[in-house]
Amino acid sequence: MDYAFDINLKTRTILSSFLENFSLEKLNKVPEGFSNNIFWNIAHVVVVQQLLVYNLSGLPMLINDAIVAKYKKGTKTENDVTQDEVNELKTLLFLTVEKTKEDYNNGLFKGYSSYTTSTNSTMATAEEAIAFNNFHEGIHLGYILALKKSL
Predict the structure, then answer these.
(1) CATH pick for 2-150 out of 1.10.287.70, 1.20.120.450, 3.40.50.150, 3.90.800.10
(2) How far is it, in rounded angstroms, from Cα 149 to Cα 151?
């Protein structure tokens, strides 16, 4: 599993670079033809990782319900975010992966409620959720790169 966590941290480092190097205006902009912005895509991957790995394992998530409600599957950009929200997301990007790795290594993920994604991938274990999550984050990194070209 170390490899899966390493890949996740590498993706998160790339995502963090957008939060570090793009203005608030660019992070908030929803280009024509898109329904979400760069910030939404980054917040969304944090939320989905928590839902797939923690929530479906029956464990408390490391993020609050308000963030989940704003960035879960089926949501879209509603409002501009503030610099404080960007700073919070920068922290959550790494805290959630590091804590997941720690909790995994400590054997916390015992049960799992099987879940089938919109790509028709069924996960039956936390390990499968962690692997699928890397695929999911790669998809959203691709969206972000397309958004970047449209800014």
Answers:
(1) 1.20.120.450
(2) 6
